[in-house]
Structures are given as C-alpha cells and as structure tokens.
Amino acid sequence: MQLLAAIAIKESEKCSVLKYNCKFVQFTGKDGGPQHLGVQLVQGGDIIAVSAVDSRIPNTMKKFLEGGDDMLKKAKREDEVNLLTMVERIVAEGRSVIPETDVTFLAPVTKMDKLACVGLNYSGHCEEQGVSPPESPVIFSKFPSNIIGPRDNIMLPSISEKVDWEAELVIVIGKKCKALNKDEGEECIFGYTIAQDITARDWQKSKRNGGQFLLGKAMDTFCPMGPAIVTKEAICDINNLSVKTWVNGDIKQDGNTSELIFKPHEIVAYISQFMTLLPGDVILTGTPAGVGFARKPPEYLQRGDVLETEIEGLGRLRNKVL
C-alpha cells in the first residue's frame, strides 16, 4: 500500500523556509485505503494532497526529510528538484484538495531508525517524585512499532494494572548528525510534534526485568504521536509552550516547556555523542508534573478513558483507552 507524506501548512511570516507555517502530516482516507500526502492551510481546513499532485515528492515523511537534507543546504541545478519549492508551488496552486472530514490522520513520521526518550527532564516532574534533577540527560528508548496515530486507540495490556500518561514534546531530526557540540544541536532539528509516553509503572518501577525501563515503556500502542510535525521556523519560542493532558476532560498535566532541564538542542547534541542521528529519528523530551503514579492516591488509565494531549501551537492528540 502506497504511503505518501502529508504537509499541513498555515500562512504566516514566521517561517523562513517556506512562505507558510509548515505542518507535516500523513493520512489515509476516512475509510482506509491508500495512504496519502497533503497540505492543510488552516487547522481544521481542507488538505492538499501534494505527493498525489507531483510524483517527484517523496511518499513518506522520512523520505522527505532524507531528501531535504541536501535541499536545505544548497541550491539545486536547473534540472534538479527542490522539494520545498515544489511543496510551496502546490500549496499556492491549491490543487488536489481533500476535506479534513474525509481523512484519517496517521502518526506524522513512521519507520524511523531511532525512537529515543529523555527521563526526568522537567523540574516539576523531579519535584513530584522527590528526586534531584539529573546532571546529564537520562536516555532510554521505545520502538518505532510502539507508535500509533493521533486518534488511534491505546490498548491496555493484560499484564499491567498501572498504565500511566506522560505528555511529551518530540524533536524530529532533519539531517544526519554525529558528535555535535551544544551550539550545533539546533541545526539538526527539523521540527517538533507531540507524543504520549504511555508507561506501565508496575513494569518500569519494579525489580522486574532487572529494573530496566524497556518493557514498561515499549508495549504495543504505547506511543500515540501527532497530529503534525511543525517546522522549527514556525515556532516563536520552543522553550515557552504549554503542555497539557486531560483524562475524561479533567486536567492532569499543566506544564510548560520552560521547565525543561535540558533544552532540545542540548539533548540532540548529547545523544549525538553516542550514536549517529538520522533524518526522521525522533526524541521524546520528557514530561511535566502531573503523572498518575505521583498523585495521592495514584491514578492510572482505565478502559473507556479518553486521553487528550495538547502542546501550544503543535496540535492535540485524542486517544481512547481500550
């Protein structure tokens, strides 16, 4: 089944790469079928299926980012294609328009090489656990197969009774990078999206699995992501965005990225000391205070719950728990 990347774009003068605020999304038709690529000019508005208009545009977000590495660095010869220019032209012409009501949004990037996570990276989250902020980023991982779309269902596993929420800002890597210094980290960031780092606390915080995080973090459907990748140029201040979680309409997390202990560019530079980051790789940057296990009494997700997650300017996830 063909997969096409989709780009949601809103007009603004902030974006220095395109003439628009750039929101990249992947989607299918409402009833399934082929997966498509589109551009959304305003939130809730129609989508322009850009890769359906021009086959030279890569058919996944990952391929778009891989192709964009060179295109963001240098001008192309007359016989070559600049992907960003092509997207801009298609948006301006308004071709291949699809109503939002006719699509199902997927996670905005999939099949990446790495899905890294940062723990204990908000001051409030450290405080609610009674621990000191770490001296360096605490890194662990989930798997790309854990990712689900922004409106897909979270499936509670039968082996856990303590499944918790964690709203997270996600870094999307736009170019290959290795052994960066702190000042170079920003150059490798393409944009940002939202994720929930769903966690089985009775597997993460016990002696099971030798005390390792992995099994508690990497169960099926434990990483809702989306709805879009917003380019970094479209965000005025990544270090001042509200981060919120609701369960059944009740606010559970109400933080701000200003509380991040290690900022996005610092995280990228740090991880690049250990491994090569590739276009399409994603990094979950940690969660603010308000998680379920730290509440008194503790609270956990139950079947039938509706989990909603919002980061200012990036969109909103809505996932039912089954």
From TrEMBL:
A GO MF label: metal ion binding
Alphabetically ordered keywords of this record: Hydrolase, Metal-binding
Family membership: Belongs to the FAH family.
Organism: Bombus terrestris
Native organism taxonomy: Eukaryota, Metazoa, Ecdysozoa, Arthropoda, Hexapoda
Protein's name in the database: Fumarylacetoacetate hydrolase domain-containing protein 2A isoform X3
GO biological process, one term: oxaloacetate metabolic process
Domain Fumarylacetoacetase-like C-terminal positions: 115-321
Gene: LOC100651102
Highest taxon of the lineage: Eukaryota
